[in-house]
Fold this sequence. Notes:
By secondary structure, the protein is of the alpha/beta class. The chain has 20 helices and eight strands.
Amino acid sequence: MNKGLLCLVLHAHLPYVCHPEAGDFLEERWLFEAMTECYLPLLQVFDRLQEDRIPFRLSLSLSPTLMTMLADEFLQGKYVAHVQGLIGLAEKEVVRTKADPAMHKLARFYRRFLAETLQVYQERYQGDLLSAFKKHQQAGNLELLTTAATHGFLPLLSISETAVRNQVRIGLQTFESYFGRPPQGFWLPECGYYPGLESVLQEAGIGYFFVDTHGILHASQRPRHGIYEPLDCGNGVMAFGRDRESSRQVWSAQEGYPGDFDYREYYRDIGFDLDLAYLAPYLPEGKIRVNTGIKYYRVTGGDQQKAIYEPQKAREKARLHAMDFLQKRQRQIEKLSRAMAIPPVVVAPYDAELFGHWWFEGPVWLEAVLRQAAGDPGGLQLGACSDYLKVFPDHPVATPSASSWGDQGYSSFWINDTNDWIYPLLHKAESELEAAACQWRDKQLHAWLERALNQAARSLLLAQGSDWPFIMQSGTTVDYAYKRITDHLARFNYLMDAIKNHRIDERYLLALETMDAIFPGLDFRDYCP
């Protein structure tokens, strides 16, 4: 770390979606698509580097809801059936495209890709992706982190510190149950920070977290070195700021690498291009058009003028972009190091799903970055924020400003005229749960009453997820987001009424526990302030 450190941070999160009552549920495909195009390709990148004895180091945050879904045997079985179905569709495509050599070659590419995905999932990982990530954590390749229990947007839950504390605490408990030790760092959902949150993190044993650039630059005292040195929040908890330059270079479809004309076009998929009757056996309910992952075009041109995708050419471009990224970070760090008393730290955080799902070549790019960095020992050094803090533990003291990495930089994406009705209901439910927790905390309870109180807390946690107001504002699957919030709150209200009246349908309670099979160690007593 002679000149500085580059910290690549990937944040992997999906909302909890598990429908044992449905054979093929549309929103479960969010998970299956991410597994096929992102999580499995990333693990294969890590495996190849380890097999080739290439040293590498980066950070990966896994949300509690995602961890729970990846570990769920029911969803694991559904995923296998999902990929088998896609292999069947790819087989049909190989036949359909025989008259078009370029498309036929791509159809065979997808058939091979899907068959290898299924083989790796079943034979190499035995369906257990968390153990595969844990192996790289134990080898020192990954710094694994986590986030709040259901990815609740903490600034808008902070009217109750108990709500925030339990989002943090239950998230950490879930992580430790899967990985055997607590994380050193914490990903604030949507990088949403408010002054005072650092006290909750310190209480939970967290050493550092991330904020967007302006969270550091608009701190109570502007730091001399800006975002290139962490802030001590006054209690030993460190705040690292996002480097916009490196983020924009990778994340932006307009200014960054993913918009290059050689890369695969995400928005042209045979699920929307081909005849419905042909696709029906592979679509939800046989009629709902969805992305299949089989895409024949690259980014070039307008909707009807796109050129055919060439995977080898795209991979070559990804390696060139990796070299470009490293060269720019090297120049950036060399320039910063001349003006700083200590080596700078450049933090580059991204949604993990960018790599493979949205940007199909993203895993190729990442592997090239890690290989090229390792091949130049005197060049750019990659690591985790905890590595930096071990060498440089003392930093300026200040309080970051309220901020997020959402549009406009604050809370407007999660509270606006599309979704502001949510929060009075959440706050009312939180207040009711806290009162009930204090009422029943020290009493001997019948088994059904304790289960009902715990399930009420679980329902509230699931209603607090940041994904639902985000979807409402972004305008995608709005009906589903509305249904999820109202369903969770309706379940909460039913349970609270049953508790007050000392009467509950235990079969219905069991059904709710089955549908929301998450956070088994949850204890309602923790909601008594």
